[in-house]
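Researcher: Please generate the 3D structure of the following complex. Treat every line as part of one assembly.
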Amino acid sequence: MTAPLLELSGLTVDVATDDGGARTLLEGVDLTLAPGEALGLVGESGSGKSMTMRAVTRLLPRAASATGAIRFEGADVLGMNAGELRRYRDRGVGLVFQDPRAHINPTRRIGAFLVEALVRSRGVGRREALARAAAVLAEVGIDDPQRRLGQYPHEVSGGMLQRVMIASVLLAEPRLILADEPTTALDVTIQREVVAILDRMRRERGMGMVFITHDLDLALAVCGRVAVMYAGRIVELRSADTLHERAAHPYTLGLLGSRPSVDARAERLTAIPGRPVSAFESGPGCAFAPRCSFATAGCESAPPPLADFDGGVVRCARVQEIHAARMETKA
Amino acid sequence: MARLLLHRLGGLLTTLFLSSVVIYGSLYLAPGSPENVLFGSRSPSAAARAAVRRRLHLDQPLPVRYWDWLTGVLHGDLGTSMVTGQPVADRVGSGLGNTLLLVVMTMILVVLFGLAMGLTAALLPGRVDGVVNALTSVSVTVPSFVASALLISVFAVRLGWFPASGLGQGFGGRVDGLVLPAVALAILSCGFLARVTRNAVRDQLEREHVQTALVRGLPRAVVLRSHVLRNALPPIITAIGLLTAGTFASTLVVESAFAVPGIGQLTIQSVAQKDFPVVQAVALLLVAAFVVCNAAGDLIQAVVDPRLREAGSTS
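Model: Done. Output below.
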């Protein structure tokens, strides 16, 4: 087995509150990513998926602190000094943010944004950097790249700006791309194109990717494995091919059941009752128990461990029984 | 950009024209007729009064007098002082240099110290921010006449570092004499600019695009300069423009306190002596300074933020 590209073990993020206490946002997240692999991180808002990405890039809010370990190609990310962190951010990871309008400086030209990292951190000449930028813009499907380089962000569409952001990440040629809901802010028609570009570029360059989304289908389409998060913990992790058939955690089952589908028979969509909770709101037991139709009294008292089940890992105390019951109704 | 320039220039001329009407009109609506000022306590014969009124063109209707004055001003003829008989342009011109120098010195102090304090407070949250905040809270409550009195008593009377009133010979002498007046004017504005700068920089530091710059591994200095400071400039420029304009008005008080022979002192003298032509010229000059400062601020902002360049052309 090759050495992992990214390895999270027991990653926990706490944020200090004004009254002197602390709230847990992430609790004991374990993940490994092989070089060139794509992993989906799926969950509702507040489930901790974006916080995971922020921790990986050390972009946590001032009041937050991370414990546990984050290893990138073996290097301890949480222990890096300022210089090492800059190098790691420059060459190691690239981040595609959700909202390019807010995440690209509105007062500078697109060309300046694209070449900035090359010129400032790598000493590439401005002219050479602009030529590379134009080439990458063409690759991500932007026509007339020369003209775009001279335009300002407010002069182009959101979809094009997201491609500019993807291009900026590709220019840096990182080993790992973190995509944080890269299509959520875009029109539905543009979403598919942008995801396809991201997927193709990543494969061509052999980059690893963590794809964060609340859209389970989107994650299944572009990722080899998918991790489902709930209340700051991973509740299920398995390969994308088998998740449809073998999903075992009640929350994953709920997510699968609540999606509308074109070829479905006139079945009613099943909604998950209640509202999603954050890690700090959950009680001592399973965080999903209050919303779970399979929950028993035991679920609320002790937290279930993440255990191997049916080719994946699942965090559910009753997974065996639930699985058996489902198989019975199917048969 | 060219359209924005034209747009601002049009607005500038309109403002100047309207304020010239108001200035000219209001002075002649004010109680006390100009010829009475000349006669003082004497009571002239009807013939003498009529002669003076004719000489001052007071026998003509107001619109005609305004028109004569306006065409004169546009040709560089500001009229003649009713008190000294000198051309108004000479009286104003001799003080203008001092006032401009005072405003420039004040604004150099304001920009240097205001920006430095604001930046420090924004980049060093916690104790440093608290100290700067306390300083600026005090400084924005010190009006320039209070500052003048304090500065004179400490630095001129007790320590004798600077003259208490008047200006010395040559450029060096003038600068020396204007240090205390400039400081008196700068104290309040410094605090104001520091606060604007602190908030603008704080606001940008939390922006998403700054996170992008950080996460791309750019050096901290580059992130601060190209992303934080650059984007924080628009409100800072607006503040500097307004403060410069306000400083012109505040020179009235400070020039009197320090006996600086400038426009401010001239204004107060002329108002006291009811020297209408001089008051008109000075008032118009102050309005012009105000309008020009604001327009300059707007234009510089458009250079900094491309999104503002189109704002002018839509209206």
